[in-house]
Specification:
The structure is a single chain. By secondary structure, the protein is mainly α. The chain is about 80% helix and about 0% strand. The protein has four helices and no strands. The longest helix has 25 residues. The chain is elongated.
């Protein structure tokens, strides 16, 4: 199970890197890329799978709750930004990288664990 958890965490981090990279590539024009929303969704799904495996082994509930809240914010904002016919709202647009970076900082520094 430890190996499976490691694989899920690596894929989770790769999905966040893709989502943040897609946002950075589209930051100047504010024309969102659909891959950003798909990568954020993949990160949420992989994070939930890792949470189901990692929580019984002693992970803190606050840690997983914080990561899940920021992940869902990033995913919803990413989907909202690609669904709009015009440029996305500035709040929605800038919540995407803020939520992704917050999620990564919580994971790296084990905030709430």
């Amino acid at each position: 199970m430890h190996t499976l958890l490691g694989i899920l965490v690596v894929l989770h981090i790769i999905c966040w890197a893709i989502a943040l990279g897609a946002w950075a590539a589209a930051a100047r024009t504010k024309q969102p890329v659909k891959g950003m929303a798909h990568a954020a969704s993949g990160a949420v799904v992989l994070g939930l799978a890792a949470m189901m495996i990692g929580m019984p082994t002693g992970g803190g509930h606050l840690f997983y709750t914080l990561k899940l809240v920021f992940a869902v914010i990033a995913m919803v904002c990413a989907w909202m930004s690609i669904r709009e016919d015009r440029r996305p709202n500035a709040v929605v647009w800038y919540l995407i990288p803020i939520s992704i970076v917050a999620n990564i900082v919580i994971g790296v520094f084990h905030i709430g664990a």
